Amino acid sequence: MYPTLYHLIYDLFGIEIPFLTHFNMFGLLVALAFLGANYFFLKEVLRKEKQGLIVSQEGKSTPREHVSMLTLIAIVFGFLGAKIFAWLEDPVPLSEFFSDPFSGLTIYGGLITAFIASVIYLRWYKMPLLQFMDAVAPGLMISYGIGRLGCHISGDGDWGIVNNAPTPSWIPNWLWSYSYPNNVLNEGILLKDCIYNDYCFQLAEPVYPTPLYEAFFALILFLILWKLRTKIKIAGQLFFIYLIFNGVERFFIEKIRVNSVYEVLSFSITQAEIISVLFVISGVIGVLWLKNQKQEINSNN
Fold it and tell me: What is the DSSP letter of 205?
């Protein structure tokens, strides 16, 4: 694992550059995730603008400028939401909560609050909401996968449950169960012959490397969404399909992932499972509602 950029450079090239310890690998991958989302979001918005689906309003911001502002909104409100939802999942004293702003982040919290803020922004500027929702869907999926790679590379605790089962012959050991050596949390047991001075622990028992699984599935789902984007003609449906994909993927990965559990009506369930179920339900309702609306418009014509 590489907690910081310093550790990555030192391990690969044997070069020590002390100031690189200030560059957290998880943070760098999150930044890359935002850049990736922005790239595909802008690409789609410009395509829709060319097709006349998104029209610039005279004297106001261009679609390109709206994309930049929406990305900034996503960063700010996404961070706030990720912190708030993390605290709701695992409440701690406020002094501890604010002591490390970049720890304890919940992806769904960030996604929900960023979405609400973006909707308010688009409504304020009277931009076509459904077209923008569709445009951002593929970018959201690939950015999720990049973010999960950051979780894996840094070893930030978003791993799976203990997996001591024998490794199947068709899969590499590191992809089946992993001990996260040199993890950023310094969790587990002390490593022998550690090349670092500050991150020298690995998990006592290997676990499912769930961030890698999620990164893989996110890539596959991104490619599907990217293919569908030019085939689906009902505005908004692509975004609701994204919600279904996201919810299904996260719901099933939660079964082998470490997380805080709530007891609801004698059922044990995680915050992510609750939200993922709501995502799937919302996605199905959205797809069917938009399809019905389209059919009503056609019948009236």
Answer: S
